[in-house]
Structure to design on (612 residues):
């Protein structure tokens, strides 16, 4: 094996009296592709900074081959001293390095070099930092969350660029697909020390789980040995003094080993506060068009979203993903078109901005809204310290200001705030930013089990594949097209030879096939040009919305009645009657919604006017 270009050996580092790194190692040979994985707060970024020579450990060695060029991409970019993006990227080049490569990379990444560093968006800042790291074609690239703030086209470009690069790589990323495609070795940072797998990230999780199982087995054996020795010590067994002294010393050593063997960190436990079910129809959008300063971000887009759908919205930065999300949820009026929201919606939003809370606010104040020390989840009050543990916060962090939290901790806190609120429609704008891989897995499981509806903007391909039931993708000229399935399904449908051509600008975007029932006898047996809505069908279309609204209010009132914990003991008859009425009302509501949806689909098929 080739000698390493860069190596860390026995790195120890303590922050505030708490050991962060307790003997961590890292080595990268020429051309190697290593991913560094571990929980948020485990010290991955700190270890990478030490590898870059930007931080000093308390103890341990750093070795770099003489003459080896190392470049480091931090999560937070410092543009101090530079006026433009080109000046910033040029400063990373050596005297003998090609100055044209800096301009080429900037232009490839959508920048022209004249941008003021003071006005850069998060995505533009990340692109400039990537150009500076890649421009000198270093021997070793240390990349800390390189895909943060990048859109899907930029992520896929970066992936191809790194695959073609001759540089050795050390990657920290929450993007599973990115790691699987690039890594050839995996270093796991766990409880201060590192373990290495000579395979890429795709093999990591099975290997990690086997290691944890082996460690638990060894810890169990150690506990049994300690129990035997303690039984011997307290049993009054007498023998030669030297032997007794040795056994007492051995027992003390085993006790010390058990104390120092910190167990694997606990799992995050996500529970989403859920309210009563929404109506069957959640959102119906017809002909949405929106433009800003002459640029059309949505053109004649239509869709229908029903209860239980999980919709992903994808596209390049600036395509209008957040704008579309705001129009679909009624927070932003379209220039033309109409959005109809269903009944009984309880909406909870998680914005991509992590700075909406004051830095001086404490973790407790953020979770409780500044009201006491209780968090209400699914109608049950919980002490804030108990709820914090579900999201891997320590009790002593309850009074910590938000300014001291890491990016991952702030992301978990924002999730904790959002998920505590009762909802049946989750609106998530880039929820995966800064989350570690284990937390992402649990968020995926929560969304899979969530009984409400989810609208999701994300650039994480693997996350989209695991979570969504359909994808709304940005096309040219402000057009958006909906594809059934996840991100990979969307790519397959786009490249399929038998797909219909992309709709021309100004034409309606096709609604997803998932909402259109098959085998509608009315539309199967009668041609649309001859079939018309009957008087009864028109009357039902006009009156059913009012019926649905009345039933929804009745159901809400019955839920309030039955939420009285003393009703059953006080008046059993009233409790039973309310329960029966609730069942009938919910059945009537479902039937009314189904009938309205069926008639609305039929009206749309026949090209009739919308019900007034």
């Amino acid at each position: 094996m080739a000698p390493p270009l860069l190596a860390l050996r026995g790195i120890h580092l303590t922050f505030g009296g708490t050991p962060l790194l307790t003997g961590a190692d890292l080595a990268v040979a020429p051309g190697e592709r290593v991913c560094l994985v571990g929980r948020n707060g485990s010290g991955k970024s700190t270890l990478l900074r030490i590898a870059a020579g930007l931080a000093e450990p308390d103890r341990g060695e750093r070795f770099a081959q003489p003459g080896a060029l190392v470049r480091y991409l931090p999560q937070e970019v410092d543009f101090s001293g530079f006026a433009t993006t080109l000046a910033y990227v040029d400063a990373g080049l050596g005297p003998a390095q090609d100055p044209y490569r800096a301009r080429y990379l900037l232009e490839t990444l959508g920048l022209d070099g004249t941008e003021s560093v003071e006005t850069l968006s998060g995505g533009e800042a990340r692109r400039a930092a990537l150009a500076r790291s890649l421009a000198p074609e270093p021997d070793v690239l240390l990349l800390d969350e390189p895909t943060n703030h990048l859109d899907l086209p930029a992520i896929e470009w970066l992936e191809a660029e790194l695959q073609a690069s001759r540089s050795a790589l050390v990657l920290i990323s929450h993007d599973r697909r990115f790691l699987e495609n690039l890594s050839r070795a995996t270093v796991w940072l766990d409880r201060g020390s590192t373990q290495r797998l000579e395979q890429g990230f795709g093999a990591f999780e099975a290997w990690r789980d086997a290691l944890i199982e082996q460690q638990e087995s060894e810890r169990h054996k150690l506990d049994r040995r300690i129990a035997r020795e303690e039984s011997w010590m307290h049993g009054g067994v007498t023998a030669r003094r030297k032997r007794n002294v040795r056994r007492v010393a051995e027992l003390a050593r085993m006790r010390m080993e058990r104390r120092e063997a910190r167990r694997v960190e606990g799992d995050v436990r996500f529970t989403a506060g859920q309210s009563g079910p929404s109506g069957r129809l959640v959102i119906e959008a017809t002909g949405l068009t929106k433009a800003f300063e002459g640029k059309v971000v949505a053109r004649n887009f239509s869709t229908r979203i029903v209860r239980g759908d999980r919709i992903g919205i994808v596209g390049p930065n600036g395509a209008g993903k957040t704008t579309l999300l705001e129009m679909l949820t009624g927070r932003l009026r379209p220039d033309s078109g109409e959005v109809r929201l269903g009944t009984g919606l309880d909406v909870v939003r998680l914005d991509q901005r992590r700075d909406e809370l004051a830095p001086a606010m404490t973790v407790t104040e953020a979770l409780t809204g500044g009201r006491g020390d209780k968090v209400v989840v699914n109608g049950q009050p919980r002490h804030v310290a108990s709820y914090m543990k579900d999201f891997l916060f320590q009790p002593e962090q309850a009074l910590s200001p938000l300014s001291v939290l890491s990016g991952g901790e702030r992301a978990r806190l924002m999730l904790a705030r959002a998920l505590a609120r009762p909802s049946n429609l989750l609106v998530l704008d880039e929820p995966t930013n800064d989350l570690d891989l284990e937390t992402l897995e649990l968020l995926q499981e929560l969304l899979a089990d969530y009984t409400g509806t989810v609208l999701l903007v994300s650039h994480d391909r693997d996350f989209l594949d695991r979570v969504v039931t359909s994808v709304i993708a940005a096309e040219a000229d402000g057009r958006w097209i909906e594809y059934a399935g996840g991100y990979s399904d969307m790519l397959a449908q786009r490249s399929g030879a038998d797909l219909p051509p992309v709709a021309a600008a100004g034409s309606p975007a096709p609604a997803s096939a998932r909402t259109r029932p098959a085998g509608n006898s009315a539309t199967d047996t009668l041609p649309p040009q001859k079939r018309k809505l009957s008087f009864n069908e028109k009357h039902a279309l006009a009156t059913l919305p009012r019926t649905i609204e009345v039933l929804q209010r009745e159901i809400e009132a019955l839920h309030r009645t039955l939420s009285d914990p003393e009703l059953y003991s006080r008046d059993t008859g009233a409790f039973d009657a309310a329960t029966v009425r609730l069942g009938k009302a919910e059945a009537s509501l479902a039937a009314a919604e189904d009938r309205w949806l069926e008639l609305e689909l039929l009206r749309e098929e026949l090209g009739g006017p919308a019900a007034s």
Remarks:
- The longest strand covers residues 281-292.
- The first helix runs from residue 44 to 51.
- Residues 544 and 595 are 8 Å apart (CA to CA).
